[in-house]
């Protein structure tokens, strides 16, 4: 663990920080323009023809997982609640829409006091999803639901991609802590979102201080190669770091010669040195040599952290190496080759001119959708998941549907009539999602954790009532 923090301490850091309860991660700026223009032009047209007030149900799902992946991990729902809290338009925003001629004066008036008053339900953060899983369902008027489309998709697609990659990496690490170090490899705001999603997917902490502050995450980090190069000698750099951060710090050993650096590190800090980090070379071989050298020098409790463009395959290859923790960057924040989950936001039910709710669906080739609102369950055999069950129908049909014994209901309420569930926001919600992810992964067949390409680990059965 970076800074000499051990695995147990990392878990404590995840669940024991001061940022508690409701989110401190609410947006510092309005989110109502974080959208595509056609959301507002559709609203404008619908307000003019009278359909904007029609009750609607929109569904978020993906038609397929990234090639070869066995499952996905849902993440970002708490951030959606944060974003909706900030979804309002100030005078400057309204003036922009008006000056650009994007919407009419009547729509400007409608938007002046806009707030989302609908309901949202979906999969828990940290839950596994598969093709056609109803990950999120948004219900309200067409006008208010359509404005959320781009924002909801941008959050869910990215956060779920990072959480899915983090899950594969955490599994490949085989119980050794993984830490997010990807902030410098992506957009500065995406870096904050990635830190949060990584913890949902199994990581233990982050190097990103804003994410640590907003979400109460474990913060990690000590020194880079430039700190060693700044000093007249490696010994001076190590002595300075130990003097500033204490014996439990982690010293970076590959600026010059690793063997000499380890010897110097123990001479400076003594056998109680917290940790050393290796950031280049053949990590497995070097970790083995460093471990033997540390033990020979009496530093038997000094931990070894490795970094350097790791992904799940590299982590799997290091399972037999004496490594204590990992720092992961580029491949984490880019979804390890799958930077999006290809989720879509589709209308599945709407109110007709007679006031009756009507299931609707696309019939486009390769893009057909399943009509109606959804229920979602997972069935088990011998304690292992065997099938995802998606039930589609009218509100009345679904309320009368009786799942089979032992099926787990996968949907939770995020918002009801415009009121969000504060328990699903903030640090405590992230910690709960982290724990739920571990439990849900353990309930999947063991092949879910295979890094070999394959089909989704369980099938999805769709029943239209």
UniProtKB/TrEMBL annotation:
GO molecular function terms attached to this record: glycosyltransferase activity; nicotinate phosphoribosyltransferase activity
Highest rank taxon of the organism: Bacteria
Any GO CC annotation of this UniProt entry: cytosol
Biological-process GO terms, alphabetical: NAD+ biosynthetic process via the salvage pathway
Pathway per the UniProt entry: Cofactor biosynthesis; NAD(+) biosynthesis; nicotinate D-ribonucleotide from nicotinate: step 1/1
EC number(s) stated in the UniProt entry for this protein: 6.3.4.21
Annotated Nicotinate/nicotinamide phosphoribosyltransferase domain residues: 178-306
The protein's enzyme class: ligase
InterPro entries: Aldolase_TIM, N/Namide_PRibTrfase, NAPRTase_N, Nic_PRibTrfase-Fam, Nic_PRibTrfase_pncB, Nicotinate_pribotase-like_C
Catalysed reaction equations from the record: 5-phospho-alpha-D-ribose 1-diphosphate + nicotinate + ATP + H2O = nicotinate beta-D-ribonucleotide + ADP + phosphate + diphosphate
Function of the molecule: Catalyzes the first step in the biosynthesis of NAD from nicotinic acid, the ATP-dependent synthesis of beta-nicotinate D-ribonucleotide from nicotinate and 5-phospho-D-ribose 1-phosphate.
Name under which the protein is recorded: Nicotinate phosphoribosyltransferase
